[in-house]
Amino acid sequence: MIAHSRFTDKYFISKTPTQSSLPQYLTEIRLGNEKQRFREIIGDVRDEFDLHSNNRPVPHLTLFGPYDTDQGYEVKQRTQGVLSKYSVVPFTVSGFDCFGETNVVYAAVDPSAELQSLRRDLAARLKPVTYNQQPWDLDHSHEFHITIATNLGDQTTAVLEYVRGKYDLERELHATRVPAVDRGRMLWEWDLPRGVELSPQEATSRDSWEQTMAELERLDEQAQSGLVNRIRRWISG
Question: Which of 62, 93, 96, 227 has its CA 20 to 30 A from that of 34?
Fold first, then answer.
């Protein structure tokens, strides 16, 4: 049974005219302890290239959005229905790249089959009950990334060369938490390894993170044990 929370229709308030072109909601992967490393890189780039007039990126992986909806309760039901089917979702950060047409430098992400499937399942379920979706949400493929710096103009190439020369960012990570976000404010969060909904207060507690990581470790050990057993059976004939 999916828990009921304040992410319901009555909390979707009509926008003012000045807000009409700015989609309100976002479904993302919130990074765990590794987010501090990305914050350090983002801060270093801002200092090195004097980017303090630009918005400071918050490290995350977008799954769907930004978007708008007037069916908040249905969005929540569909989102959690998809997320409940996934527990171990790995991905690999594979260095740096840029979107030349928009002057954005980012950490490139190689998605696992699980991450690709999760995004596609989520998009298929949310498209019918949302509007003002982004063009990339309508595509079968998706360029997963973690934004490092935006609005770089003619500094894009210099920033890209700088981070490539200074940082070794090759690492394997796991998606653990997926929040529903309203203009930067968390409404609720889904714990993938444990398969439960968390309130914003629960989601940001140390005890909660420790429980999440303990369950992820247990699931990973279980998967590795299953692989070892399959190999043994194959060797024994």
Answer: 227
